[in-house]
Amino acid sequence: MAMRFLLEDSQTHDHSHNHKQQIWLILIIVILIALLGFSVFFFFCRRKLNRNRSHNGGLKAEKLKLRYFKLEELEKATENFIADCLLGSGAFGNVYKGSFEGEGTLAIKRAHVESYQTTEEFRNEVRLLSTVNHPNLVALVGFSEESGPKGAKILVYEYVPHGSLREYIIGRGGRNFTWRQRVNIAIGAAKGIAHLHDGIKPCIIHRDIKPSNILIGERFEAKVSDFGLVKMGPIGDQSHVSSQVKGTPGYLDPAYCTSFHLSPFSDVYSFGVILLQLVSGRPAVDTTRNHIIDWQPANLDQTCAEVAVEKCRQGRVSRGATSKKSSIQLFYPNHAIWK
């Protein structure tokens, strides 16, 4: 009997011990699952935070008064960046026309992979362009920055409907300007450039002023665009900043090319070339002729300018407008502009 009691007591003890082991095992498993769940939760929270930081480019879009666009939105607006939506292409990237439900039509500039050496370079450009606000400068609406295989750095601008000044200067599609329109475009472009130089501190030098970067708005007003080469100008008593030569041949300031000294006057030189093009209808660089700055109507006082313009415009020039010497002189910059 005593033996049976001891045996039952031993079995009860073993059962109790096994039960405790099971409880501890279950408890350990629960703790491990909880730790694993917390780790997964922490991982995804951190990933989402990093993604948001990446999306905002270290920037607060609302603070900059810009909109952040998701890549999916831009793909939808451009039908996945199809060729039919392509407005133009350059060394910096491609520009697409995108249609949005809320904003309407916008211009989407998708940079090439090599356009920015670092992510911070792109972010600095966004910060800089967010400060630019003038009716004669194309406005930045927002941006997008995505990492990963589909990564992209994209700037979204207002859409300007009538193309670029280049199309009008070379007469593509029979497009031509009246003298009044040319004067207004010249004045508008000058105001936009002047705002970059004098309306922002420190000043901004565009470095690529040319007809294809002057867009024509709804009311045929000029809007300076493409800020891919902009550089901060001199500060205080400085007259220039040292810079590697960048820009478009034919519009580059010779002094900048030889000295590597960049100043607002480099943009002024480029603008002077455009003024000559507005009068002559000639390209800045022509293999059959000298550079356009060497082009001079022989007798402005005897309306030779009218003959030159009429030849380029195929008789579409207003006689009353071209007979006004003051109109011609507005377009013909003094050669001191290049000194």
UniProtKB/TrEMBL annotation:
What reaction is this protein's catalytic activity? L-seryl-[protein] + ATP = O-phospho-L-seryl-[protein] + ADP + H(+); L-threonyl-[protein] + ATP = O-phospho-L-threonyl-[protein] + ADP + H(+)
User: What is one cellular component GO term in this UniProt entry?
Assistant: plasma membrane
Q: What class of enzyme is it?
A: transferase
Locations listed in the record: Cell membrane
The molecular function GO annotations come to: ATP binding; protein serine/threonine kinase activity
Q: Which UniProt keywords apply?
A: ATP-binding, Cell membrane, Kinase, Membrane, Nucleotide-binding, Serine/threonine-protein kinase, Transferase, Transmembrane, Transmembrane helix
Ranges for domain Protein kinase: 81-339
Q: Which residues does ATP bind?
A: 109
E.C. numbers: 2.7.11.1
This protein's source sits in the domain of life called: Eukaryota
The record gives the membrane topology as: Single-pass membrane protein
Can you tell me where the transmembrane regions are? 23-45
What family is it from? Belongs to the protein kinase superfamily.
**Name by which UniProt lists this protein:** non-specific serine/threonine protein kinase
Specify the species. Answer: Gossypium mustelinum (Cotton)
The lineage is: Eukaryota, Viridiplantae, Streptophyta, Embryophyta, Tracheophyta
